[in-house]
Design brief:
By secondary structure, the chain is mainly α. The protein is built from nine helices and two strands. It has two domains: 55 residues, Arc Repressor Mutant, subunit A (Orthogonal Bundle), CATH 1.10.10; 147 residues.
Length: 229
């Protein structure tokens, strides 16, 4: 990214790397040759999910995970250095699932780029496992948990905005980094509110509210030609 005098910011077309090969939060990754590795990693992710639902992420110890997964501590450390590593393994899966949703949205729109084409897929995904989503992103979500999701959304938003930027490098009124941060925080805020609000709102309603809040900013900065909702 470079600054073009004082008139605005030019967006580089260098895209962030999305190299994970999986589909959804805590699901299996692309299978390596050794099926035992796949089963062990799946068992550890499943154990973490169960424990998060029972007592929250912050209260979980590595010993809790290995006991629930029925694996030895030495086996755990052969795959992960900490419980955070297990969490990030699942978050990586989710990021790739959402990146696929973003690509599918572009194909459905005949190549037109919606920089936030992944958000409805996330609301739908969160709704499918509402209790887990509340444990991860609700009022009881831990700092590590919230930061992991924030970093994931930051990468997806940044990639979407870069893909939607002017191919001629036309300057935008607001620096890209500021717009990424603003959009990510808005998404996190709406998600955390939507998960807790009563009466319960549908994924379509949650996404609609978020897009009504953020789309005018994207339009004003040239990343969206018209509002999506």
């Amino acid at each position: 990214m470079s600054v073009n005098g004082h008139s605005g910011v030019v967006c580089s077309k260098t895209l962030p790397d999305d190299s994970s090969n999986s589909r959804s939060f805590m699901s299996a990754t692309k299978a390596p040759p050794d099926r035992r590795i796949v089963r062990t990693r799946e068992a550890l992710r499943s154990a973490l999910v169960e424990l998060i639902l029972e007592k929250g992420y912050d209260a979980i110890a590595v010993n809790d995970i290995v006991t629930r997964a029925h694996v030895a501590r030495s086996t755990f450390y052969a795959h992960h250095g900490s419980k955070e590593s297990v969490l990030l393994d699942g978050i990586g899966n989710l990021r790739e699932f959402l990146a696929q949703a973003q690509r599918a949205a572009r194909e459905a729109a005949n190549g037109l780029v919606d920089p936030l084409g992944f958000t409805l897929a996330f609301f739908e995904h969160a709704d499918d496992s509402r209790d887990l989503s509340r444990a991860l992103l609700g009022s009881g979500g831990g700092v590590v948990m919230i930061n992991a999701f924030r970093q994931m959304f930051d990468r997806l938003v940044r990639r979407g905005l870069i893909e939607a930027s002017d191919p001629k490098g036309k300057a935008t009124p607001i620096p890209l980094d500021a717009l990424v941060r603003f959009t990510t925080e808005a998404l996190m805020g709406v998600l955390m509110w939507w998960i807790e609000v009563k009466p319960r709102l549908s994924p379509l309603d949650g996404n609609r509210i978020f897009r009504q809040l953020i789309d005018p900013t994207l339009v004003a900065n040239g990343f969206l030609t018209k509002t999506k909702v």
